Fold this protein.
Amino acid sequence: MQAGRTSEQIKAEIERMFGFFPNFFQPVLGAPEALESLWQEELSAYVNNPLPAVFKEKLFARLSRYCANPYCLVTHSCLMRFLGQSAGEIARVLESPAPASDADIEGPLHTLAAAGSPLPVWPEPGSRLEEALLRCSEISFLNARGAAVCRVELRRLLGVVNHTHLIKFLSFVKLAHLWIEAYPEVSYQADERTMKLLAAIVRDEPRLADFFNQYPEIVRRERESREARLSVERLKIMQEIDRSILAAQSAEEIASVALRRLRYLVPSERVTVALKGPAPDEATVLATNVDGEHNVEAGTRLPIEAYGDLSNLIAEKLQRGEAYLLDALSVPDPAPAIRELRTKGRRYYFIVPLLAHGELMGSLSLGADSPGALTAEHLEIAREVADGLAIAVQQARLHEQVRQHATELEQRVAERTAELEAFSYSVSHDLRTPLLTIDGFSRMLLDDYADQLDAEGQRLLKTICSNSQNMGRLIDDLLAFSRLGRQEMRPAEIKMSELAAAVCAELTATAPERKLQLNLQPLPPARGDQSMIRQVFVNLLSNAIKFTGPKDVAVIEVGAAEEENHNVYYVKDNGVGFEMKYADKLFGVFERLHGDDEFAGTGVGLAFVQRILRRHGGRVWAEGKVGEGATVYFTLPRKGRKSC
Amino acid sequence: MLNGDAVEILLVEDNPQHAELTLRALKKHNLTNNVLVAKDGAEALEFIFATGDYHQRQIENGPKVILLDLKLPKVDGLEVLRRIKSDERTKEIPVVVVTTSEQDQDVVKSYKLGANSYIVKPVSFEKFVEAVSQLGFYWMLLNKPPS
């Protein structure tokens, strides 16, 4: 670049080159440095680019269909005419549809693949091969579907030199587009020569007039819908990741869904998520989505040291929340892993951190083989996906941890239960065994030696018997009570009226000497374990019969009321009642409000009832007054609970 | 020691006091004839299969009923039961399992192994006597002349 030229000097050179001063440069005419820069870029990438002139114009014109300012489209179409192309040929180049489906890619790719590599001679203008080159360059330029494959083919076919010229040319077209879109006032109408050529083209192909006029509007609409499509896609991906989090899927599942969707949006040949660990100096591939051959499967462990010094640099960047762009070709003194990338022809990697609450969990990497394939927008998408993924992976891990804890707890509970059962067994066996002997031998003593004992001696022996039997009952009740907690519930519909009636009949049969007036109200059905609820009635009704003992006529009523979520059942008696201040004590294990001389019992009955009802999701309480009787209420949910 | 071939009831019980109580309960039902007490599972098996001290006995000659405690030293009651019920020569002998708890898992297991009945050792001796009375049923059954 010749430094320090004035705008006039540069303008003079441009006019010498083109025969006029294109309106393209007008905006920077007052800024010689900017003018120089733009002009030098144009000279090197376009004017002096050794690719064939006709090809350059065709490509420029075709690519300019995607620029909002029609300047390039029209001027380069005119230059095609200038280079001897017919208006029909110009129309053919411009009117080829924008690549949309896979079929649009496969034809040209097939043509390229059939040509020798590298190309011995540049294809003839208008040939199928030229068209295939244009098409593949266009796809690559647009980063459309299949761009990655097109790039590979172009590189193979053109060879290093021409491929470099092509890339440079494409970059300049991009630059030109950005430039004139920033200056909508740059207009082809101001270029005298362009207007002359345009008149000739339109005369030959009148439909091109409409084409040029309508193009800006078409581009605008295209862009809007493309942007809308992109943002819809982005939203979809983020939604899917969110759904995966909610579904508490495994980290692997979440990652592979995210990667699959990410590849719809980002023209990357290889996307991989790797997480740190399990060893401190390694990472493990969580999921990968790759074109063609998979050489890094999920679960592959990557030793970090294989990346050499670079790994520290990358880790530092990622930790700071920054992305890292790795260019395998530009790493000096490459470590083995980088050398391997080079031999496989892999060059660029975007490495994006997976950060959850400041903790670096791993990275998402996007591989591409040509520069510029991944844009800032793609990077932004990748980061968004990585952020979602990091949280999802963390959630999945937490879920896994919780699950493991739960399993451990269950196991511990099972162990404890087994211990408790063994304990219960030995209590039941070992404590009862001597009791039977005490009772039995006392009885033998009474049977065989009664005549040698006076009344007091016999009373003492009988006390031993009755107490050993009492202790036996205590042990049995306690065992039954502890067994209740472990017993599996078999919930079913219970006909409560029938159940209560059956229990009443059974109990009255055991007390034929009593005058019992039983008043059974209709009871709504309930859901629960029949044998347990039966036990509730047995305990409550036995209590009612027991505590009405001193009454001439025992009046016992069983009834119920239906409430919104549960049924309330009650057993009411006219017995001795109790003081309300002791109401809470009634339900404790071995809690008794009466001495054995008044009423026999072990004090387990109501604790039993409470335990059964709690397991059913119900509750129990009592009301009473000394000398006037007691009412015990209990509830059962209308919709049964499985277990608790 | 009784003549092994005359034994009608084999009581397998390790607790000598319980054995004494059981014998007394049997006596109350007039079932005292030819009762042999084996104090552990090993001795019970020797008797039943006529080995060891009982090798001169004929397996085919009874006993007519076995009262089997489950918790036994050496060979436990369930194992004794399994051996009795899996041998063609002895599987017809009625076995009444004596247990300390009705809720015992061992009751279920012993039924699966082919126990014919069970009695629960209550804490009360009187109730135990009642429970033993059901043995009278077997007794009547066994003493019935073959038809």
